[in-house]
Write a structure and sequence with these properties.
By secondary structure, the protein is α/β, with parallel strands linked by helices. It has 16 helices and 26 strands. The protein has 3 domains: 97 residues, Udp-n-acetylmuramoylalanyl-d-glutamate--2,6- Diaminopimelate Ligase, Chain: A, domain 1 (3-Layer(aba) Sandwich), CATH 3.40.1390; 221 residues, Mur-like, catalytic domain (UDP-N-acetylmuramoyl-L-alanine:D-glutamate ligase), CATH 3.40.1190.10; 157 residues, Mur ligase, C-terminal domain (Protein-Tyrosine Phosphatase, Chain A). Helix 4 packs across helix 10, helix 12 packs parallel to helix 13 and helix 15 runs parallel beside helix 16. It starts with a strand and ends with a helix.
Length: 489
């Protein structure tokens, strides 16, 4: 379909500075490096970089139109059209949808938000729908999955993708015959209007905890960002056990479905599975899922309620639960013998509490914990996370997560600053060495929980992003230990 600038500006507030509305356009970009001949370049004012600094590069790369918020960005280039809009982020979402044929209107889109559990719940919903025969896709932190299989490609590392990439991908999925798409809705993605022009049938609201407060300048703005999803969706699925979302759900006039302990109860917790009781309209069903973690009962409940709201009876969902699996890096067992090793993405106080309380209940020996906190992020949670780890761990190794521009040793010291001195609390800044020391000091029956990075394959230290995987590090160390044990024998 051929587009002209007027097609994007139709019904959109704009002050036109220069050029023709009838200029043909090929795409919409907010990254000047990706601009090609015939594209519209939308100027975004970022936290570190201002898109206005890259207008010249965008024009050199072939941009035929510049859309910005500030008149001072206007450059008197007679070959390029210029327009002003009140909010370029919102316009970018609108324009990205339009240029790609508004694909979300023809898809069933489910957006999942919450401080913790977005990835797990979006994948569980996708798995259930796939088993039921629907053509599904999951877009988020782990990349792109189609019908449960990971697609190899250069995908954004953002939890909620940029609106340009999101709508481009939705259009491609639509052409492939996909009918249902699950996306993760982060607080930053919502605050930055990335989902504004995405038609979303269902919004799933999991929990509110302690995360990204440095980006939102406080808990109030963080909650406000999360609540933006309420206005973007047609129906809501709400956690009635979370006090904040309970209130928001009761206030909403939209069709809603509740989930929580009234829907799914934990009957038995094992190291490899959980037995669940699912209650629906006076009918009780029992099922076992092949993963563990007390907190995952709420995640399973959210997935059941979402699929049920689509129109699938609970009685048809329960028999499928034994086929579900957790996404990579979510309470993932890497080693089972002679001790157990679990990696998990938990990087908030609430998530760490959930993971360690579950781990403590399934270990036959000691609980050994390896974790750290990210640099250039909310410092107030470091002390709290240290207290949580010390509460559950019989042996605690505090180490680097993604220190970024901060001194990793100072981060570790902040984590343990107010903890009582103990020979069981150690600082080892080098994450690989911390993991190795934890493994070497462990005994048969112990459970080693390595938290904070989960699926991640890099570590951000200073200005460098280096290859690093908790899973691969554990496997390498265990292979070395096995060789030394064999030599002793």
């Amino acid at each position: 379909m051929a587009f002209v600038i007027a097609d994007l500006l139709k019904d959109w507030p704009c002050t036109w500075l220069h050029g023709s509305f009838n200029e043909r356009i090929n795409g919409v970009k907010d990254d000047s490096r990706q601009v090609r001949a015939g594209d519209v370049f939308v100027v975004i004012k970022g936290k570190r970089d201002h898109g206005a600094n890259f207008i010249k590069e965008a024009i050199q790369n072939g941009a035929v139109c510049i859309i910005t918020e500030d008149r001072e960005d206007y450059q008197n280039n007679r070959n390029v059209s210029f327009g002003l809009v009140p909010n370029t982020r919102a316009f970018l979402s609108h324009a990205s949808s339009r240029i790609n044929g508004e694909p979300s209107k023809q898809l069933h889109v489910v957006a999942v938000t919450g401080t913790n559990g977005k990835t797990t719940v979006s994948h569980l919903i996708g798995q259930i729908l796939t088993i039921l025969g629907y053509q599904t896709a999951v877009i988020g932190t782990l990349g792109l999955f189609i019908n449960g299989k990971k697609v190899v490609g250069d995908f954004p590392s953002l939890t909620t993708w940029s609106s340009t990439r999101l709508h481009e991908t939705l259009a491609q999925l639509l052409q492939m015959g996909i009918t249902h798409v699950m996306i993760e809705a982060s607080s930053m993605g919502l605050a930055q209007h990335r989902l504004d022009s995405c038609v979303i049938q269902q919004g799933v609201f999991l929990n509110i905890g302690h995360d990204h407060l440095e980006d939102h300048e406080g808990i109030s703005a963080y909650k406000q960002a999360k609540c933006r999803l309420l206005s973007l969706v047609e129906k809501i699925v709400v956690n009635e056990d979370d006090p904040f979302w309970l209130v928001q759900g009761l206030r909403s006039k939209k069709e809603r479905k509740w989930f929580g302990n009234r829907l799914v109860k934990l009957e038995a917790l094992k190291s490899e599975s959980m037995k669940l009781k699912i209650m629906d309209g006076g009918n009780d069903y029992f099922s076992e899922v092949p993963f563990t973690g007390i907190y995952n009962t709420s995640n399973v409940a959210a997935a059941i309620a979402t699929v049920n709201q689509i129109g699938i009876p609970v009685s048809s969902i329960v028999p499928l639960l034994h086929q579900l699996t957790l996404p990579a890096g979510r309470f993932q067992f890497v080693v089972q013998q002679p001790f157990q090793v679990v990696i998990d993405y938990a990087h908030t106080p609430e998530a760490l509490q959930h993971v360690l309380s579950s781990a403590a209940q399934i270990t036959k020996g000691r609980l050994v914990v390896v974790f750290g906190c990210g640099g250039d992020r909310d410092q107030s949670k470091r002390k709290e996370m240290g207290e949580i780890a010390a509460l559950y761990a019989q042996s605690l190794w505090v180490t680097s997560d993604n220190p970024r521009s901060e001194n990793p040793l100072l981060i570790c010291q902040q984590i343990i600053k107010d903890l009582p001195k103990s020979k069981n609390i150690h600082i080892e800044v080098d994450r690989a060495k911390a993991i190795e020391k934890a493994l070497r000091s462990s005994r048969p029956g112990d459970l080693i929980c390595i938290a904070g990075k989960g699926h991640e394959s890099t570590q951000h230290i200073g200005q460098r992003v280096l290859p690093f995987s908790d899973e691969q590090t554990v496997q390498n160390i265990m292979a070395s230990l096995a060789m030394s044990w064999n030599n002793v024998e």
